[in-house]
Amino acid sequence: MRTISAADHLAFLNSQSSASFLQTPAWAQVKAEWKAESIGWFSGDALVGAALVLYRQLPKVKRYLAYLPEGPVIDWASEDLGGWLNPMAAHLKSQGAFGIRIGPPVVTRRWDAAQIKDGIADDAVTTLTQLPPGERSQVGASVLSQLRELGWQCQSVAGGFAAGQPQYNFQIPLAGRTEDDVLAGMNQLWRRNIKKAAKEGVEVTVGTAEDLPAFHALYAHTAERDHFTPRPLGYFQTMYAALQGEDPDRIRLYLAQHEGDLVASTIWIRVGTHTWYSYGASSTEKREVRGSNAIQWRMITDALAAGAGVYDLRGITETLASDDPHLGLIQFKVGTGGEAVEYAGEWDLPLNRAIYAAFQLYLKRRG
């Protein structure tokens, strides 16, 4: 295994059916405050695996946490993951890493919308994991077992959010389905709201980089209303330029307008057959015209038209408790008729145990 060029890295990803956008070479430009490296696994001359590594430097010393968000892109079905991960660990240690954090893009369990709806209705059920899954992945179980045997440590925390990326996502399967199939799978409220938006005259268009300030103004309004800290406009401008520069159809900005007013705006990302709803914003005014439903439906139909097999609404918590403030988010997503998907989560491998322990303490103190 060795360092590879961004061009070779991208060519490898293009040969795969899909990979996380966090593993694209362009993502290194988005996270410019981190040192970045593309690495590759070779079988002879053939590139058979790749990863984007982001190096987070410790304060004042040149030692790093090597972070591979939702990666690496390797054969996770292998019965010898040590054959993949041990050479990677040796390479990253030689680059000054005191520890490694990975996010295997491997599904472990799935729950369909009907199961989740029943769980929400049952007061005895407070978390997703209390429900028997509709599907358990043998590959996922093997990955978890092998990681433990190899000395990796799971970083999952309460609520289902790992140290970096969410462990639980909500996705709409699209492979082999038509628009009518997907619409029929939605609940009555979603279908009614999509129809209402059309009747009210909500228009959804694909914007350009010039529309990012309008998106950001609405996003900042959403952040204030929903009590989260917004990212600055510059972050989205960098993200848009980097991803579009890598592939003209990697990222799209959507705008939903009603009588000249911007009522919703979203960012859609695609790598191969996987599409994501990455960021969203909506106005408090004119909520009755259902711009959020209209813009989601447009992104879903565009994902189908692009040949995507998955439309990913990204993270959810595992809570199903009626008094939890996160319940509304999962209820909104469950209405699409998709499924909750549990991934393997994020895992750490300490390479220098003393420095790694000090880093963990630093993170706890920082809050």
Automatic annotation (TrEMBL):
<dbReference type="InterPro" id="IPR003447">
    <property type="entry name" value="FEMABX"/>
</dbReference>
<dbReference type="GO" id="GO:0071555">
    <property type="term" value="P:cell wall organization"/>
</dbReference>
<keyword id="KW-0133">Cell shape</keyword>
<dbReference type="InterPro" id="IPR016181">
    <property type="entry name" value="Acyl_CoA_acyltransferase"/>
</dbReference>
<dbReference type="GO" id="GO:0008360">
    <property type="term" value="P:regulation of cell shape"/>
</dbReference>
<dbReference type="Pfam" id="PF02388">
    <property type="entry name" value="FemAB"/>
</dbReference>
<keyword id="KW-0808">Transferase</keyword>
<keyword id="KW-0573">Peptidoglycan synthesis</keyword>
<dbReference type="GO" id="GO:0016755">
    <property type="term" value="F:aminoacyltransferase activity"/>
</dbReference>
<dbReference type="GO" id="GO:0009252">
    <property type="term" value="P:peptidoglycan biosynthetic process"/>
</dbReference>
<keyword id="KW-0961">Cell wall biogenesis/degradation</keyword>
<comment type="similarity">
    <text>Belongs to the FemABX family.</text>
</comment>
<dbReference type="InterPro" id="IPR050644">
    <property type="entry name" value="PG_Glycine_Bridge_Synth"/>
</dbReference>
<keyword id="KW-0012">Acyltransferase</keyword>
<protein>
    <submittedName>
        <fullName>Peptidoglycan bridge formation glycyltransferase FemA/FemB family protein</fullName>
    </submittedName>
</protein>
